[in-house]
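Example 3.2
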Amino acid sequence: MTKRAGFVALIGEPNAGKSTLLNRMVGAKVSIVTHKVQTTRARIRGVAMACDSQIVFVDTPGLFRPRRRLDRAMVAAAWSGAADADVVVLLIEAHRGLTEGVQAILDGLAERAEGRRVALAINKIDRVKAEVLLALTEKMNAAFPFEKTFLISAEKGHGVDDLKAWLAGAMPEGPWLYPEDQIADLPMRMIAAEMTREKLTLRLHQELPYQLTVETEAWEERKDGSAKIDQIVYVMRDGHKGIVLGNKGETIKAVSTAAREELEAFLGRRVHLFLQVKVRPGWLEEAERYSEMGLDFKDGA
């Protein structure tokens, strides 16, 4: 069989059930995310396998009417995720129907989704009667030319396999984006790296805002139930390395301790965290670094 791989953006209003649906698609462990919004870097929520297809779900914040700068940034990030995806799935709640917020998303899709494959998933179908569901399906498809409509209950699993199978077939032909043996721990490795990067950002403030990145190089599960995690902090020049290390290494020690404590609380077990700082002047132009951040290097061209 031909291998397929691509990106799927799940969009919708806040609390439409995106996380629950992802848990069903890829397994609860895989779709865990940090609460920090990173509008500067795309995030991978999880990777699902179906037959010979690899479906990579990109993180899109809930779409809503923005009031503050942060709101606008989140909405912009959501549309950016949708614009870069191979397939967009709009998730709405059956009992709420075509709300003002959903209409705003449809207007946005009409403007931004040209050439994209867009499907509709009506969630929480167990909350309404069949005739209400039928009427909503007709109303939504009259409002936007969806390629396919799915009636699902993300919580109970109804219809989720049909949606997953369709997405698998809708992925472009091509090699998998991630090795199969990395799928289970890929998001955890990324989350661990993001936690350390966040601690560095908090510690260094504006000194090195976009000049560093963190990668989880190795993750070893130990017999005593603990995890040994090796990470590399890449910086652009030698002067940056000194800033990250700090006087007598105190900065990197404090960052390592804070990141380890957060990881232990997150994983519920002991963690041995080892950080190295390496100078790579051109890391911003390396395809491998982009892959680690869940970005397509070609998109930056």
